[in-house]
Amino acid sequence: MNRVVGSVSHPPYFDGDNYAAWKAKMKSFLWAQDDKVWLAVEEGWEPLMIEETKGKAESSVSISKLKPRKELSNDERSSSTFNQRALSALFTTISPEQFNYISKCTTAKEAWDILKITHKGNSTFKETKLQYLITKFENITMYDNESFSNFYAKHSIIVNGCHNLGDSIPEHRIVKNILRSPPIRFHAKRTMIEESNDLNTCKLEQLIVSL
């Protein structure tokens, strides 16, 4: 099913796949609404509470309850509204299955953090996944009957995956990795590129055009 990928008026849809891409698009969408909308997600917002005393004298008890909206100051009301706008966007941008994770949330930051933990995992999981991708990066090769465009697409998925997990691979490493991966039929081109370029400064776009 085709989904709207996101615009100023339509937030990007998320069904559980490719969390990293959705997160980047959703952050951009929320910020475009208002920087204070994104601030409600990034720094959080706490519902304002007031203390109310019930009973008399020694038998009285103090209880906390939400401050009525009509008693909020203009700044307090604005902060509440920015949080609600962010939360509403998160609620409406996700599939019913994903909504189950955050349906009880009252703040945008809480909902955002739950989705992040659910789909990115803890630091141990991230490190394991990162090591797996780095191993794939180091060992990737291009098959004899494979087109360069297909190989480059696979290579880009690995590189982007590392970036999304917080470990961006330097461009010169990407260039050298690609250059050593093609089969023997690329030998002449590879030799020409190596002899005419400094691989430590060679741009990725330049390499792609050459190959």
Task: Draw up the topology in text.
Elements lengths: L18 H15 L1 H8 L6 E6 L6 E6 L7 H19 L3 H7 L5 H13 L2 H17 L8 H17 L6 H10 L6 H10 L7 H7 L1
Antiparallel strand pairs: 1-2
Helix pairs in contact: 1-2, 2-3, 3-5, 6-7
Written account of the structure:
- Helix content is 58%, strand content 6%.
- The longest helix is centred in the middle third of the chain and has 19 residues, at 74-92.
- The protein is mainly α and 211 residues long.
- It is built from ten helices and two strands.
- It has helices at residues 19-33, 35-42, 74-92, 96-102, 108-120, 123-139, 148-164, 171-180, 187-196, 204-210; strands at 49-54, 61-66.
- The protein has two domains: 19-119, no CATH class; 123-210.
- Helix 2 packs across helix 3.
- Strand 1 (49-54) and strand 2 form a beta hairpin.
- The chain is elongated, with a radius of gyration of 25 Å.
- Strands 1-2 form a two-stranded antiparallel sheet.
Radius of gyration in whole Å, from Cα?
A: 25 Å
Question: Strand percentage, roughly?
Answer: 5-15%
For this entry, what is the oligomeric state of its chains?
single chain
Indicate the overall shape: elongated
Distance between the termini: 36 Å
Biggest sheet overview: 2 strands, antiparallel
Strand numbers in spatial order across the main sheet:
1-2
Number of strands: 2
**Domain tally:** 2
Class from helix and strand fractions: mainly alpha
- How are helices and strands ordered from N to C? HHEEHHHHHHHH
Proportion in helices: 55-70%
Per DSSP, the total helix count is 10
Low-confidence stretches: 1-6
Give the rounded overall mean pLDDT.
83
